Amino acid sequence: MKQYKENSLTLKGTVALGTGVMIGAGIFALLGQVAELSGTWFPYIFIVGAIISSFSAYSYIKVSNAYPSAGGIAMILMKAYGKTTITATASVLMALSMIINESLVARTFGSYTLQLFDLENNSLWVPALGVALLIVAYLINLSGNKVIGKASQFTSFIKIAGIIVFAVGGLWAAQFEFADLWPDTTDSNEYPFTSYIGACALSILAYKGFTTITNSGEEITNPHKNVGRAIIISLIICTVVYFLVAIAVNSSLSIPEIIKAKDYSLAEAARPAFGDYGLYFTVGIAIIATISGIIASIFAVSRMTAMLTDMELIPHSHLGMSGSVQKHMLVYIVVIAITLTIFFDLSRIASIGAIFYLVMDMIIHWGVFKHLRKDVKANGAILITALFLDLVVLIAFLWIKANSDILVVLVSGIGVILVFAGEKWFLHWKESE
């Protein structure tokens, strides 16, 4: 396929893309929401999320190492289920969860940027700034792989170094001691067990950026080895970063304070620890992180959806536009992300994205277990464990949202049904044609 350039992404560049997506959304957008569901245990929820994500990553690593492809997840599903409605539905759900992630990061960019000004955080400026970021990211993505790869490496280094400085500085300012690592158990009874599992669902969303690496398989140097290496390295880096930052925030703010400022909790934690200069530093890192996260995510999902078009799993119309299918997909992706950024808040965006991702992830694990595990030499017990963990987390999260925000469950359920019905009709129409 001419639009995919072999060996255009190095191992470092691929790791930068993976961490760029994860850290951009994970630590800035989700930390406060995870704390809201799990109290002082929230730093450890990110470790649990990393463990669950590691089991999930096993399926992607085994298949991607055997069959590296620019289609990534779509390729895995195609090999497991063939050209079926299940393949198309799961692929679209993954693409939608990635686009939802982009709108999540875009609103996070707006929330943190507003901390520099005397404006209400729930004002129209949050979606306006998010929309502006999406448009800029679209223009950057038109420049090609080399520019994106180099920009991702540069921004990933800056934001990871900056976040570590924030974490270490925050721990020092709070006079942190190792005894503080143990959570305050006095509030444990305030949270039901399902709430902790629901928090795990959001923490998993913070790690799901590793899947974008599989979508660039055909473009990565030595893909049969480097796809798996890049996923493992990205997960390890993000786990360390998330835990350090969560401990630092937990040391600087009380849980009610974190919940109150959940859309910009790192910026709020910087105020007592470092004053105004710390606030400016933290917001600056957040802006860099969210910008690179958006760029990396759009890069990955545009290639995935272009592959779905080539595989005739989704409909496509040029709408009078010139250029490649991938460039058309950039337009469609950004338009959907802009719509979500305008009409949904951070909490609902994150919740819908988590549900779509977990449903797709379970379909992946079952397909690899049922149809591919012998071909790719995968361990069946690990695959079933990954499937079971996803199922438990999904059920608990749906239960929580059904009791607190039923709209999230309804929108997610209707979305899955519409995607399935639409794909069933489209594939039947293509076969008849």
Overview of this structure, please?
- With 433 residues, the protein is an all-alpha fold.
- The protein has a single domain (11-432), classed as Up-down Bundle (Amino acid/polyamine transporter I).
- Helix content is 77%, strand content 0%.
- The chain contains 16 helices and no strands.
- Helix 1 (11-29) crosses helix 5 (85-113), helix 5 (85-113) runs antiparallel to helix 12 (265-310) and helix 5 packs antiparallel against helix 14.
> Structural class per helix/strand content?
mainly alpha
Distance between the termini: 24 Å
Count of the domains: 1
Tell me the name of the CATH class: Mainly Alpha
Which spans have pLDDT < 50 for at least 5 consecutive residues? none
Write a concise keyword list for the protein shown above.
433 residues, mainly alpha, Amino acid/polyamine transporter I, 16 helices, 77% helix, 0% strand, globular
Task: Give a brief outline of the structure.
The chain is mainly alpha-helical. It contains 16 helices and no strands.
Lay out the secondary structure.
Elements: H1 11-29, H2 31-38, H3 42-66, H4 73-81, H5 85-113, H6 125-141, H7 145-173, H8 193-207, H9 211-214, H10 223-252, H11 255-260, H12 265-310, H13 325-343, H14 346-372, H15 380-404, H16 406-432
Helix pairs in contact: 1-5, 1-7, 1-8, 1-10, 1-12, 2-3, 2-8, 3-8, 3-10, 3-14, 3-15, 4-5, 4-14, 5-6, 5-12, 5-13, 5-14, 5-16, 6-12, 6-13, 7-10, 7-12, 8-14, 8-15, 10-12, 12-13, 14-15, 14-16, 15-16
